[in-house]
Each structure stands twice: as C-alpha cells, then as structure tokens.
Specification:
Blueprint: H1 7-16, E1 18-19, H2 28-31, E2 49-55, E3 60-65, E4 71-78, H3 92-100, H4 112-119, E5 123-128, E6 133-140, H5 144-156, H6 162-179, H7 183-194, H8 233-239, H9 249-264, E7 270-276, H10 280-291, H11 297-300, H12 317-338, H13 346-349, E8 369-373, E9 381-388, H14 399-407, H15 415-421, E10 425-435, E11 440-448, H16 450-454, H17 456-483, H18 492-513, H19 520-534, H20 555-562, E12 571-575, H21 577-587, E13 593-594, E14 604-609, E15 616-621, H22 624-630, E16 675-680, E17 688-695, E18 703-711, E19 717-720, E20 725-728, H23 730-746, H24 748-756, E21 760-766, E22 769-777, H25 781-793, H26 806-821, H27 823-826, H28 829-841, H29 848-856, H30 860-870, E23 877-884, H31 888-913, E24 930-931, E25 937-943, E26 952-959, H32 973-1000, E27 1049-1050, E28 1056-1057, E29 1061-1065, E30 1067-1074, H33 1079-1099, H34 1102-1116, H35 1123-1142, H36 1157-1167, H37 1170-1182, E31 1189-1195, E32 1213-1215, H38 1218-1227, E33 1229-1230, H39 1239-1242, H40 1244-1251, E34 1270-1271, E35 1274-1278
Helix pairs in contact: 1-10, 3-6, 3-9, 4-32, 5-10, 9-12, 14-20, 17-18, 17-20, 23-26, 23-30, 25-31, 26-29, 28-38, 32-33, 32-36, 32-37, 33-37, 34-36
C-alpha cells in the first residue's frame, strides 16, 4: 500500500530536519538521512499507529494515527516545574503556565485560542507539577490544523504582556485561595515543611499575589508572609543603588517570568504528542514546520547585549537601564535555581545521587516522630512514611512495586484483613508518596475507625510486623538462591515470592494487552510526560512489566528496601480531631522542647505553623517503650503473604457466536441497541424481570459488563398501611445507605483478588432501588456477579451468618456520621451553594442536620430489619443488562440464576413474616424536582461554616418552563427544538463567559459546563480550572407526595396504577467561586454578561452559528470508545424508559426507547437558526417576566454575610435560614404540566405557553449538582400514559 505525499510535506520535512524510525508506511526520501528511533511498544488491542520524531531544534515528538477518533489532541510537556522555581519567587513555573495561554505575536488576542476551541468542539487545560509543566487541548479533527497553529505559537513567540501579567497573577492567587480549604493540599504543605529547606521538594509550588507581586502597585500591597523582609529586597537594592522601591517588584517578576521561559522552554527540554484521525504523514506535515520554529533562546541569546522588550512603553534611558539590570539579575536567579531540580529522563538520572528531602536530623536527630494535624473534614488518618532510595531508573523492576502490592493487599492474611477484623481500620493503601530521580518516600496510609484511633499504636505495630514477615521471606528466598541454584531445591519462601512477582507481572501484561485505546485528550498529556522520562519506545508500556516473570524477581533489592521499613526510618502522621486534642492537652502550658535537649538545637518538639497555608501542626517524639514494642517479633499466624489469585481469567477467547468480521476492533461501527430477551411479569411465586442483552461487536476484547437493578420503593420509602401508598421516609433512605456501605466493607477482603484480576463491582442505592454493577474479563464475570448477589440477598437464619456483622456496621456508621458532622465545616463555598440549591429544588429530606440525627441513632437491628423489608416488596422488578463478550445463552443462564436467588430470599422472608399478598398499586419510584415560579427571582443567602473559607460562591440557575427532549417517539417536536437550542446556547456562552468573568474581570475560578444530569456533587473536586462540557440524562418517577397532579392508568383488570412516564427538564447554570468581589457584585456581573450576551447573539454571523452547531452535533455523535461507557449509556436509557415504554396500555414498544437520541439531537441542533435561538434565550434568560431563576449565594470570610437581610434583597424572594428555605420549599409545586401555578401568578403569555406543553410535561428529578454554565437536566416520572400522541 502506498500513501500520497504532498510536495509541501517533502520540502518542509527536509528543511526543518528530524529523526524518525523505520515504518512500512513512510516518506522514503526523509528516511535516508535520519537516525532510526526504535518503534513504540504497544499493546495487542491498540489499533493506533505511531511515529516518533526528533526535530533539528531538539524537540521530541510522537505522532499517533487513530482511525477511530473524531477529535484531534495535542500536548506539550516542558521538563521543568516548581522544583526549578527561584527561592525568592515561589510559584513562578505555575505563573508561567498561566501566561503562555494569553496570546502570541502571531495570535495576540488573549481569548482567541479558547474561543476557537469552544467554537469547534474543543477544550484545553494546563498543569504544573514539581517536575513538569504540561499543556494540552483537543478539537474536532476538521479544525485541528489552525488550533495546532495557535497552540504552537505559545511556544514560538508568547506575548507575556505587562497587562496580562498584572491580571493573571490574580488567577494564580485565586487558585491558591481555593486550595486553602482542601485537606489534601493542607497536608501536602505540612509534608513539604518537614523536608530539607535546601531540597527542591520543599518549594511552595502554587504561588500567590504575595510570592508573585506582579500586579499593579495598588493590588499587591497585602504584605509578606509573617511580615518578613521582602524576598526581592536585596536583589532590587543591588539594581537601584541600595534603594528598595516596592513598586519595582512587579517589573522584576515579569523579568523573571521571561527569564524562566527563556531558560526552560527550550526545544530539547520539551516533548510533544499529536494524535488524531489524520495520517501520520499529514500530522508530520503540520508538526515539523511549526514546532521546528521553536527557538532555543537560552542557547542563541547574545550574552553581551541585553535586548529591550518590544512592548516597553517607557523609553527613558534610565528606565531602560533598570530593565536591563533586572533582566540580568532575573536570568542569574533563574539559572541558579535551575540546578535545584534533578534531570527527569531515565538516562540522565543514572548520574543523580540519592538525596532524600526527609531525614531524622531535621526533626531532632532521631526517628520515629509523630506529626499531628487537625483536618477540616472529619477523618482519622494514620500514615507511616519511609524515605527510600529512588527507583526512577527501573520502573518495571522496582522493589517498591512489589512492596506496594504486599502491604496494600486486602486479602486474607494481610495487614488490612487483620486490622479490619478487629474493627480498627476501614481502608489501607501503600505506595510511593514521592518518587523522583533523587528520592522516594514510601507511605502506608490507613483510615482509622473510632476504636482504631484509640489503638493507633497497635495498628502501627501490625504494619511493622507485616514488614518483618516480608523481610524474613525475602531473606530466606535470597539465602536459598545463593546456596543452591538448582530449580528443584528452591525454598518455599523463594517460590512464594517468585509466584507473587510472576502473578503481578502476568496481570499487568494482561491489562496492557487487553485494554483498548481511550480518549485522545488524556492520552496526549500523559504520554508527553512519559516520553520525557522513558523515551518514545517505552512511553506506552512502562510499568506494565512486559519482560518480568518469576525469574526476574528483584529479591536483593526487595530485601534491602524492606529492611528500611522500620521505626528508626519512619515518621508518622496522625490527622484527626482526636489526635489534635491529645496534642493540645499534652503541650498545654509547655514550651516547645528541643529535640536532643540542647539549647543550641534549632529544632524543638511542639506546635509549629506552616509558612504558606498557615496550617498548625505538632511534632512529638514516640515513647521508647512503644518503639521497643514495634521492634518485637511478628504474629506469623494471623499474618502471611497473599495466596494465589483465584480470579485470574482462565481464557481470553472471544465468544463463539461472534462473527469473524467482529473479531477485530470496529469502534466506528454504529452501536446496535440491546435485545430484550426476557420480559416476564411477576406472580405469587416469581418476581417480574427483564433481561436485556447485547453481544459486543465493536471492541473485540474478552470483557463484559452486567448491571442488575432491583426496582423497589423499599430503598427510600415506607408503605403506609392506611392507604397502601409509598411515601418517602428519610430513616428508610438512611438505612439503605448503611446497607450498601456495610456490604462494601464486608466484601472488601473477599473481592480484593478480583479487583487485582480486573473485575470491578459496586452496589449502590438510589430512589429506583438497589443496583449491582460488575465488569471486567468475561471468563469469571457471571460467577463473580452471582456470588455478590447471593451474599447481598442472603437473609440468614438458623445461625447462618449474613454480611450484617457488628464490626462492619460500626465501621460504616463511623464513616457516615463523621462525613455528616464535618459536611458544612469542610466543604468549599461552591459545594455549599449547590447543597442549598438542591435542598430547595430536589431533596425530599430535611438536610444534613436531620440526616446526622438519624445516622447517629441507627442500630444494627434497624439495618437487619430494613434488609429483610426489601424482600417483602412483591411488586419489585429485576432489570438486568448483560453486554460484552457473552452469548445470549450465557446471559439467559445468568438471569435465571439471579432471579432465582432473589426469589428464594423473598420467599423465605415472606414465609417467616407470614406476609399476605401485597395489594398496593405498583409504583416505579425516583427523585423529583420542584418547579420554580415563573417570573420570580429566588435567592438563597448562607454563610460558609468552613473557618478557612475565604471565597464566596454564586450559582445562578435558569430553569426552563418547557419540557426537555426525551426521544422522538416520546416527545413533541417543540420539546426537541427547545432542548437543542438550550444546549447550543450553553456552548455559545461558555467561552465568552470564561473570558469576561475570569480572564478580564479576574473574578476567580469558575467552571462553564454543559450538563444534563441528576446527581449531587459535593466533594472537594467540584471546581477546577478546566472548561469542559458533556451531555447526560437521568430519570425519576412521579411522586406520591403530590397527589393533586397524579395520573392514573386503568389496567384491564380494573386496578389503578401509576404509570411511569418521564419528563426532562433543562436548566442553564453559571457559577463563580471568588474572593475578589462580594458575591452580590459577582451575581450582578453574571447578570450583566448574560443580558448583554443577547447582542452578541444578534451580531453573530450565520457561519459562526453553523460552526457552533456543527461542532456540538459532532461531539454528540462521537463514537463511544469503551465498553463500560457503552453499557452505562444503554442501561441509563433502559432504567429511564423501560417502565414507560413497556407498561401495559402505554401504546409503546421496545423500539420506542430513544437509543438514537444523540443523532436526533444533533440533527435538530444543525437546523437551528438565529431566531429560534434568540426566542429560547429570551424566554429562558432575558425576559424577567417569563424566566424562572434561582441564585444560591454562599459567603466566605472575605465578604461575610450580614446578620440581617441585606437591603439589596428587598423586593426579591429570599431565604437566609433553614426555616425560610423549608417554608419556601413547601410553596413550590412539583414540576408537572398538569399542575402549574395559577394564571394570575404567572401572567397570560406564560400561561398560554405552558398550556401548549401540558400534554408532555410532568414531574422532575434529582438536581444535577455539577457545576458550570450548562444544561442542568433532570428527569422525572409522570402519570398517565398518553399513548403515542407526540410521536
């Protein structure tokens, strides 16, 4: 096969120069004058092709052709990070990362890059670690070349303008401020403060306005940390003849920024990855002429002459001389600090000496010591840290890999198993906390229970004991190997370690070869960093142990490392409220005590304050008696090395039913919908159930996924005996939460081997019931899933134990109660704003306080009763979906066995309780949403209870009054157009909103996200700088609580049943997290932007609208690349729409399930014109008389909430207390078109508009608490089946 090469590609390749390996499809003339790079090692399931290049300027590039991709992605990784920061300017590398995105000489507009990506289905991000600064983007492949051109010029000719520098430091400061309330970040800073101050690891990596005083003089006067002398004072005095003018600091920071870029952003210090559907030769023709232009400024600069900045508008000779002096001083400072960071490539690291940042002499001269911190969240952490030699050069034969496997194991005989059985811990992990060319810090992290906190020294003893056992086995193995080389004479110990190492290697190899390629976006950035360390040949395979087996066991190294896992080489971290209170009581009234008792020692035990975050922590010695006990012999009865893994697949063969053409990957093939194999009604002796099945014909991998949903209202509701109606019950919902937590804890030991062997599982509770999901290699998946289901369904009896044991209950209760107790004090402002909004809009409970009360009073007896109550529901339905490498026969056998397990449990409980036939009407349950009052602006005002929260948060939500699109058979054409327009509007708004509020106004961090979702997100990861978008839909049922709008379906038997029909609700959401302005002012600016955006829409050209629509349509129809994603997508539709389409009398069939929604929506989006978009924008956002808006405010320490209601809230409906919020909630109706607000309340025009949609709109669902500008879509079940009148 021959490829067509353009003449342009030939000349560019010869001109710029590069080196590449031999490939069968390549440019013949370029091959003649190049050094051959070895080909990339890739897995058997990897259908991509690769071409590594080294251009003449020194940059290393990997090109990847992905024939299945719809997006193009690129990443550049610079081999310099925070370790290279000057000591006087912490955060400079991070600041440089921010500045590179703000325009280039070829593309000077600051937002041109993000605007182009947003318009063409792309996204971007960047990150700075201690060793790397990595940039990445993706875009629809048709628009890749221009995006790559803009991207490449960030490295060819970045602007680093004065105005951009002064503004962007606010973004760095804002990023740092949000980290101040993260326990992970706070603990990281304490760890850094324990390190040698001269070691690069100790550097503060993020930076802020104080460490980077680059803002205007009136913005940077916050003072320095601890009122110390300004770190630039001595440098600036040398420049200014002994004078220190603080106004010069901003100029010097900019000079340092330019010097840092000049010193580190050199081609030979960069690796790049480009991947897309374009051929390798086309990619090469794009990349070589662009990235070949990146200059080596450090190499080519004229050291005898300092160049003047082209944009320097102050041209006096005095200032020019000062600027040149700053340039020289900054270059010297950056050059000196560059030597701090070790080289990161494996080859260069061979000459790096072991230099640990952590040594006993830094904490008084003797270890172990205990470092105690107070968390914001209610956690109990015990972490043992051990400095070890680096294994950077041997990633595939690292003793820490084996030690991580052994210490982190959760099976029988492990440290975890022994400690969990004692109810002392809930989790344990092991691995390198720090890994670099010059050091490694191995950690064993444990989550303690309340009882475990009291026995923390005993927990540490078990871990040290396990280390002794590993050491003994390693010693015996090594001795046996040295004494007798005969294979037949090896000791049991040597055979045991060899078996374990061989098993680890085999599982890693299997994972490498049986994993299909993922998204191009994440691939580009991760591989760019990997190349910088391991080169192009092993950039994909490193860590997969491809050449390892039992004979390559690093026994000597393992013994050497294990011998260092002892108390004398350990410092211990305790992070909990209890540990903190112990230290406060111990040191109360005492002065800090010297480590060795001498007055000259700089270190002293006691309370210390970390410099950058202001985190207080204690360092204390360990009693000698405890150390001696830790050093005593180990319990070798309860502790032993892992047994052989019984879950390793026996076969990796593909299903015999698969046709030959499907035995190769075909990601581009359209996905066929699942087949409904079984649809059986329930009766007195059998549960109702449906089996959906699909044989995978796209991925050609021996993997499968099975999801089993037990649809039952018993998960969250109680049956009222008076009216036989299911009503939500908060206590029942809490009991079900306990149930799933206990089951997960109880099965941890038994299922750890399955996790190692590639089998994953989860049991979750939702308003729909209980869902068991299992996935992985198909060979053992059915047996594995049936074992889990059997364990969950087992109700015991006659002394037969179930998973409901006191120890697991106490562990789960401790975790749940702690999480609830610390909820308000540990969450960021944006998470709390989401919480209050969702409490009003979608929650049926009474909030965190009520849940805490219920959880605290919970007993094991309550959980046992709830577990049995589940099986009393005689109307439950078993919804099963089996997909992947599984035949229909195997799926049917699984389904029969699964329903049999459930039926036996149900029969046993019903017999024991003598329950009569349940006469209540069947009901498919689910969460719901309340309808905002049209024309009313609703505001929630709450203060953050997090004592460290400086930021305020504003979340603005516009709820559509027109139902969203469900599917072409289930919704009207008008619903389709409405949903399409809202989704397109969100895409259009995203980048301008980011540019205006974040880049120009510097309000802070905010996300702009396209969302249709219905899950609550209250974790610390809810806000990042990534601008992202996605489409998702969830569902829920009509609610018994709102009988006024209930719809009844009369069955042939004459009974009345609530038919489960769905409604989709779209919302547009914007949020900002900021400490720069009062949240009220932030909300005003969001309003101003959104209202002014209408003129942008009116002025937008038709081609721009078409570009936005085309990119969104392509994103919607982008092929799914993973079986897990496909299974989740299909089961989501089954869960939402199977009850609606298959209920008797509905008039629907299986074919009416909206399998093709993405294609239908994409077609509708492409047909939208300006008038349709403007009409929706007016009704949703611009017209106050028709819009439905809620604004959730949370106030941090910078702008606290006043005690009384602020005057600016007059005339608006506001709530600033839980009582007011709950009172307002009672006044809101369920989102149901048959239950709208009175005509006089909402006006004639809106009344008429809603009237047109009454036939298709009903109840809503749980709030989508994902953050950003986007569609916040929810689903709800509705009443009576309407037939197919909307088809």
């Amino acid at each position: 096969m021959a490829l067509d090469f353009s003449r342009r590609g030939h000349s560019q390749a010869r001109h710029c120069g590069y080196h590449r390996p031999v490939f069968s499809l390549r440019h013949p003339s370029a091959m003649d004058n190049s050094d051959h790079l070895p080909p990339v090692i890739k897995g058997d399931a990897d259908y991509r092709t690769y071409r590594p290049l080294v251009l003449d300027n020194g940059i290393t590039i990997l090109l990847a052709h992905d024939p299945q991709a719809k997006h193009f992605a690129a990443s550049v990784s610079v081999h310099a990070g925070a370790s290279s920061d000057p000591r006087a300017l912490p955060g400079l590398a991070h600041f440089c990362e921010h500045m590179c995105f703000l325009g280039s000489k070829t593309y000077p507009e600051e937002n041109e890059y993000k605007q182009y990506l947003a318009q063409h289905g792309g996204k971007s991000n960047a990150s700075t670690s201690m060793s790397h600064t990595t940039y990445q983007f993706d875009v629809l492949s048709d628009y890749a070349e221009k995006a790559l051109d803009i991207f490449s010029h960030f490295f060819i000719s970045p602007l680093f303008s004065k105005s951009g520098t002064q503004r962007e430091v606010n973004a760095v400061d804002s990023e740092n401020s949000k980290n101040l309330v993260s326990d992970g970040r706070r603990r990281l800073q304490v760890l850094k403060s324990l390190a040698d101050e001269e070691h690069h690891y100790s550097k503060f990596s993020t930076g802020n306005k104080i460490t980077l005083p680059a803002g205007a003089s009136n913005e940077s006067g916050e003072g320095n940390v601890d009122s110390e002398k300004h770190p630039l004072e001595d440098t600036l005095k040398e420049i200014n003849e002994g004078k220190f003018d603080e106004s010069d600091t901003a100029e010097f920071v900019r000079a340092a920024l330019l010097a840092f870029h000049e010193r580190h952003y050199r081609p030979k210090n960069m690796t790049a990855v480009m991947i897309g559907p374009q051929s390798l030769d086309e990619l090469e023709s794009w990349v070589v002429p662009r990235f070949g232009q990146i200059p080596d400024r450090w190499l080519t600069k004229d050291e005898g002459e300092d160049k003047k900045e082209e944009d320097d508008d102050d041209s006096t000779s005095e200032n020019n001389e000062k600027w040149r002096a700053m340039q020289r001083a900054a270059a010297q400072m950056v050059g000196d600090s560059a030597a701090d960071a070790p080289p990161i490539s494996v080859q260069a690291a061979e000459t790096v000496e072991h230099r640990s940042a952590f040594r006993p002499e830094l904490q008084g001269g003797k270890w172990p010591v205990v470092v105690t911190t107070k968390p914001l969240q209610s956690v109990r952490k015990l972490v043992l840290h051990f400095p070890l030699p680096p294994t950077w050069q041997t990633p595939d034969r690292s003793p820490t890999s084996l030690l991580s496997h052994l210490f982190g194991h959760e099976g029988k005989g492990s440290a975890f198993a022994l400690l969990q059985d004692k109810a002392w811990i809930s989790a344990l992990s092991a691995g390198n906390r720090v890994s670099g060319p010059d050091q490694a810090l191995f950690q064993i992290s444990v989550s303690l229970t309340e009882e475990g906190e009291e026995h923390w020294k005993d927990v540490a003893k078990v871990i040290f004991d396990y280390g002794k056992i590993v050491c003994r086995v390693a010693e015996e193995s090594l001795a046996s190997k040295e004494s007798d080389a005969n294979e037949t004479c090896k000791s049991d110990s040597e055979n045991e370690l060899r078996r374990i190492w061989d098993e680890v290697a085999a599982l890693d190899r299997m994972r490498f070869h049986q994993t299909s390629p993922g998204a191009v976006y994440s691939f580009a950035s991760s591989v760019a960093q990997s190349i910088s360390k391991y080169g192009t040949e092993k950039c994909l395979s490193v860590g997969s142990l491809l050449n390892e087996n039992g004979d390559t066991l690093p026994g000597e190294e393992t013994l050497k490392f294990c011998q260092q896992l002892i108390p004398e080489n350990c410092f211990i971290e305790r992070c909990s409220d209890g540990a903190w209170e112990e230290m406060e009581a111990f040191y109360e009234g005492k002065q800090n005590r010297d480590g060795d008792g001498s007055a000259s020692n700089a270190f002293a035990f006691g309370k210390i304050t970390e410099k950058w975050y202001g985190v207080d922590y204690y360092i204390s010695p360990v009693d000698e008696e405890d150390v001696q006990r830790w050093e005593m012999g180990a319990d070798e009865v309860a502790l032993h090395l892992p047994e052989p893994n019984r879950y390793i697949p026996r076969s990796l063969e593909l299903c015999e039913d698969l046709p030959e053409e499907a035995k190769v990957q075909r990601i581009e093939k359209p996905i066929d919908p699942p087949t409904l194999v079984v649809n059986k009604p329930g009766d007195d002796n059998a549960v109702a159930g449906r089996l959906w099945w699909r044989l995978d014909d796209r991925y050609a991998l021996p993997k499968a996924s099975v999801t089993l949903l037990i649809r039952t209202p018993t998960a969250e509701n109680k049956l009222q005996p008076t009216n036989l109606r299911w009503d939500f019950d908060a206590n029942t919902s809490m009991q079900s939460n306990f149930l799933t937590n206990i089951f997960t804890d109880a099965l941890a030991q038994d299922t750890y081997d399955s996790y190692l062997a590639g089998l994953g599982w989860s049991l979750s509770k939702s308003s729909s019931g209980f869902m068991l999901s299992c996935s992985g290699y198909s060979d053992r998946l059915s047996d594995f899933a049936l074992k889990l289901l059997s364990d969950f369904c087992h109700v015991g009896g006659s002394g037969d134990e179930t998973f409901l044991k006191e120890s697991h209950f106490l562990t789960s209760k401790d975790k749940i109660v702690r999480g609830l107790k610390s909820f308000h004090e540990s969450r960021r402002a944006d998470s709390l704003a989401l919480y209050y909004r969702n409490l009003l809009m979608s929650s049926k409970g009474e909030g965190i306080e009520k849940n805490l009360e219920l959880a605290s009073a919970m007993s094991l007896v309550d959980i046992v009763k709830q577990h049995q109550d589940i099986w009393t529901d005689q109307n439950m339905v078993i919804e099963t979906f089996y997909t992947g490498n599984v035949s229909q026969k195997e799926a049917k056998e699984f389904f029969d066995k699964a329903t049999g397990i459930i039926e036996r449990s149900q029969s046993k409980v019903l017999q024991e309780r003598a329950v009569q036939t349940n006469k209540c009407s069947p009901w498919v349950p689910g969460p719901f949403e309340r309808r905002l009052t049209p024309g009313e602006d609703l505001e929630l005002h709450f203060a953050s209870k997090n004592p460290k929260e400086e930021n305020g948060a504003v979340i603005v939500t516009y709820q559509s009054q027109v139902e969203g699109f469900k599917g072409k058979s289930l919704s009207s054409e008008e619903s389709l157009q409405q949903s399409a327009a809202i989704r397109l509007l969100c895409k259009m708004i995203k980048e301008p909103c980011f540019n205006e509020l974040r880049t120009k106004q510097q309000l802070g961090y905010h996300n702009l996200i396209l969302i249709v979702s219905s899950f609550t997100c209250t974790t610390d990861s809810t806000c990042t700088q990534i601008v992202s978008s996605y489409y998702d839909v969830n569902y829920s049922s009509r609610q018994n609580d709102f009988e006024a709008s209930s719809a009844i379906l009369t069955t042939p038997a004459g009974s009345s049943e609530l038919a489960p029909l769905t409604t989709s609700i779209d919302s547009l959401v914007v949020y900002v997290l900021s400490r720069k302005e009062n949240p009220v002012e932030v909300a005003n600016r969001i309003d101003d932007f959104l209202l002014n955006f209408k003129s942008r829409l009116e002025d937008m050209t038709s081609s721009e609208i078409e570009d936005y629509a085309d990119s969104m349509a392509k994103a919607l129809t982008k092929p799914i690349r993973k079986l897990g994603s496909e299974a989740s997508n299909h089961f989501g539709k089954i869960r939402r729409y199977a009850p609606e389409t298959l209920v008797e009398g509905s008039g629907y069939s299986v074919n009416d399930l909206p399998w093709d929604n993405p294609e239908v929506l994409a077609g509708a989006i492409r047909k939208l014109d300006r008038n349709a978009i403007l009409q929706v924008y007016d009704s949703l956002v611009a017209k106050k008389e028709s819009r439905s808006r809620i604004v959730s405010f949370v106030y941090g320490n910078t702008f606290p909430l006043e005690q009384s209601m602020p005057s600016w809230a007059e005339g608006k409906c506001s709530a600033s207390s839980m009582q007011e919020l709950m009172a307002k909630r009672k006044s809101l109706i369920a989102y149901d078109p048959s239950n709208s607000y009175p005509k006089e309340q909402i006006g004639n025009s809106l009344w008429k508009m809603l009237g047109k949609h009454k036939t298709t709109m009903r109840y809503t669902a749980a709030a989508a608490a994902v953050i950003g500008v986007g569609v916040w879509g929810t689903m709800a079940m509705k009443g009576k089946a309407d037939g197919k009148k909307h088809k």
